[in-house]
């Protein structure tokens, strides 16, 4: 009989996955259940919010998100 | 949908013992049949209902066309999970308790009082349906108004506020401070009336357990309310102690009406009588409702105009509707009967940060679209709808799905068979044949299927041995 493991499937870009792998490695492999391929992996469900938070923090440091201009052509200023 | 708000579906996860106790009341058996079963499952139940001996599974399956295979599996899986059918080898029969009480519900008889006991004596003050509708609207709107923080003459009671904070719809920072709405609260506001009231009642159910109330008693009462008649007074005397306690709380939510807490009669409102009906409650019935809980497509009461240039005009002066709109629209001007604003990348992304999904926004806009918008083939401008979805994807760095990973298949053939089955059920999310791995959103049906398949194979092997 095949086995079933509970978890959360994450589909993302390879770059994001690389960061997740690093977070997992740095924390002593507490997150990942199964590494499936370049763009998919399964992580432990209770750990997901924590993982998201850490990912967000790392991305904040590395990326500058452009501000979107809230200009309204009919109401300038 | 936001998975944090539990609705009616939560009941499915109750333990078997609870179900067995629930089925002891005819009204509850009927309510579960009515509200929780898909039509095909209902057909199966009615087929079994007056059959004294078990029916072979194959015969039941033969009732369904082969191409509706998926619906059939769905129906059986639901019946198994709700413990309505019991299986002995390949024979199926109804749970005896369910069978007995469901028959009672259909044909009457017995003195179970499970459908409430109407008050025969005349009430001194006549209570009209209109009055009950107004009362329910006022009470329930007070809760919604309180959540968005608008001023309203009716303040919800302490019990309601505790319920909202316990349920995670509102949050209090430090004792004595004013409660503020949470992410869950926002998605709650965007829901329809019936899911909203169920979300509150499920929360109530959980809280009642902490207060030492009998859970099945509470559920019996909630499900019974769904079979009562609007405008009829019911006697309090036949209720259990727990249920009498509940009346006070349900009065606060606008689900039942009592003139005084000592009164010996109560009236269910429309919120109560539509609890277990198949189609939505208050929204279509009461034209006087002008709040976010009303989905008024048919009556042409929509008030929102969305233009291709992302501008939004809403013909409303209701603080509640304006507050809901303000969640995802950047409002700029307010006139006595109209507010106008604009949907922008920032306004949508702020909404997403609060836990509202693009689909919720789109659903809300199309549900409340102005009749003028409905005249065109597509209600909302497709460019705007697409853009709202794109804005959501932009902010997402990964897509997550909760579920189960199946691995360690013996053979490619086994893998392919399970994958095919999972795909037919619509639960397959991802698969990789080279690794013999797949990810599914639900595992119960597949596990069931695997077990049945294994035992069928065993039997085959045994019969082969006998033959040789």
UniProtKB/TrEMBL annotation, chain A:
SMART domains: Tbf5 (SM01395). It is found in: Nucleus. Pfam families: Tfb5. InterPro entries: TFB5-like_sf (IPR035935), TFIIH_TTDA/Tfb5 (IPR009400). GO terms for biological process: nucleotide-excision repair, preincision complex assembly; transcription initiation at RNA polymerase II promoter. GO terms for cellular component: transcription factor TFIIH core complex; transcription factor TFIIH holo complex. Its main location: nucleus. The keyword Nucleus applies. SUPFAM superfamilies: TFB5-like (SSF142897). Coiled coil: none annotated. Signal peptide: none annotated. Keywords: DNA damage, DNA repair, Nucleus, Transcription, Transcription regulation. Component of the general transcription and DNA repair factor IIH (TFIIH) core complex, which is involved in general and transcription-coupled nucleotide excision repair (NER) of damaged DNA and, when complexed to TFIIK, in RNA transcription by RNA polymerase II. In NER, TFIIH acts by opening DNA around the lesion to allow the excision of the damaged oligonucleotide and its replacement by a new DNA fragment. In transcription, TFIIH has an essential role in transcription initiation. In NER, TFIIH acts by opening DNA around the lesion to allow the excision of the damaged oligonucleotide and its replacement by a new DNA fragment. In transcription, TFIIH has an essential role in transcription initiation. When the pre-initiation complex (PIC) has been established, TFIIH is required for promoter opening and promoter escape. Belongs to the TFB5 family. Component of the 7-subunit TFIIH core complex. This is General transcription and DNA repair factor IIH subunit TFB5. It comes from Tuber aestivum (summer truffle).
UniProtKB/TrEMBL annotation, chain B:
GO terms for cellular component: transcription factor TFIIH core complex; transcription factor TFIIH holo complex. One of its GO terms (biological process) is transcription by RNA polymerase II. Pfam families: Tfb2, Tfb2_C. It is found in: Nucleus. The keyword DNA repair applies. The keyword DNA repair applies. GO terms for molecular function: ATPase activator activity; double-stranded DNA binding. Residues 386-451 form the Transcription factor Tfb2 C-terminal domain. InterPro entries: Tfb2_C, TFIIH_p52/Tfb2. Keywords: DNA damage, DNA repair, Nucleus, Transcription, Transcription regulation. Component of the general transcription and DNA repair factor IIH (TFIIH) core complex which is involved in general and transcription-coupled nucleotide excision repair (NER) of damaged DNA. Belongs to the TFB2 family. This is RNA polymerase II transcription factor B subunit 2. The lineage of its organism: Eukaryota, Fungi, Dikarya, Ascomycota, Pezizomycotina.
């Amino acid at each position: 009989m095949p086995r079933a493991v509970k978890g959360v499937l994450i589909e993302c870009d390879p770059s994001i996955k690389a960061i997740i792998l690093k977070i997992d490695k740095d924390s002593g492999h507490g997150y990942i259940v199964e590494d499936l391929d370049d763009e998919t992996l399964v992580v432990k469900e209770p750990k997901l919010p924590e993982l998201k938070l850490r990912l967000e923090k790392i991305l904040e440091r590395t990326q500058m998100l452009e501000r979107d201009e809230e200009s309204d052509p009919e109401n300038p200023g | 949908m936001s998975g944090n708000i539990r609705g009616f579906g939560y009941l499915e996860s109750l333990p078997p013992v609870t179900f067995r106790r629930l089925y002891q009341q005819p009204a509850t058996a009927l309510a579960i049949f009515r509200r929780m079963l898909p039509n095909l499952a209902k057909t199966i139940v009615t087929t079994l209902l007056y059959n004294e001996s078990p029916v072979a599974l194959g015969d039941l399956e033969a009732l369904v066309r082969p191409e509706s295979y998926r619906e059939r599996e769905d129906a059986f899986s639901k019946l198994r999970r709700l413990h309505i059918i019991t299986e002995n080898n390949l024979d199926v029969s109804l749970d005896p308790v369910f069978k007995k009480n469901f028959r009672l519900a259909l044909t009457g008889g017995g003195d179970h009082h499970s459908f409430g006991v109407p008050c025969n004596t005349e009430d001194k003050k006549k209570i009209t349906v209109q009055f009950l509708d107004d009362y329910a609207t006022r009470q329930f709107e007070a809760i919604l108004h309180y959540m968005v923080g608008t001023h309203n003459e009716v303040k919800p009671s302490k019990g309601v506020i505790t319920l909202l904070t316990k349920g995670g719809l509102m949050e209090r920072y430090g004792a004595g401070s004013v409660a503020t709405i949470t992410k869950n609260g926002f998605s709650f506001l965007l829901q329809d009336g019936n899911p909203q009231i169920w979300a509150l009642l499920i929360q109530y159910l959980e809280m009642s357990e902490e207060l030492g109330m009998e859970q099945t008693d509470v559920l019996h009462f909630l499900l019974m309310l769904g079979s009562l008649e609007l405008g009829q007074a019911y006697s309090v005397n036949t209720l259990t102690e727990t249920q009498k306690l509940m009346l006070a709380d349900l009065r606060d939510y606008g689900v039942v009406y009592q003139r005084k807490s000592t009164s010996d009669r109560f009236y269910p409102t429309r919120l109560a009588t539509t609890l277990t009906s198949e189609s939505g409650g208050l929204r279509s019935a009461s034209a006087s409702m002008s709040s976010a809980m009303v989905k008024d497509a048919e009556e042409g009461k929509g008030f929102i105009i969305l233009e291709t240039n992302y501008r939004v005009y809403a013909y409303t002066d209701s603080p509640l509707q304006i507050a809901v709109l303000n969640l995802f629209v950047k409002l700029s001007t307010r006139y006595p009967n109209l507010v106008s604003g604009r949907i922008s990348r920032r306004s949508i992304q702020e909404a997403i940060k609060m836990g509202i999904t693009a689909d919720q926004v789109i659903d809300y806009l199309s549900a409340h679209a102005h009749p003028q918008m409905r005249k065109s083939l597509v209600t909302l401008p497709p460019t705007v709808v697409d853009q709202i979805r794109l804005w959501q994807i932009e902010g997402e760095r990964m897509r997550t799905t909760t579920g189960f990973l199946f691995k360690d298949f013996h053979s490619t053939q086994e893998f392919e068979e399970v994958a095919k089955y999972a795909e037919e059920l619509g639960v397959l999310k991802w698969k990789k044949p080279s690794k013999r791995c797949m990810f599914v959103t639900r595992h119960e049906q597949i596990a069931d299927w695997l077990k049945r398949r294994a035992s069928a194979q065993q039997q085959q092997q045994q019969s082969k041995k006998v033959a040789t």
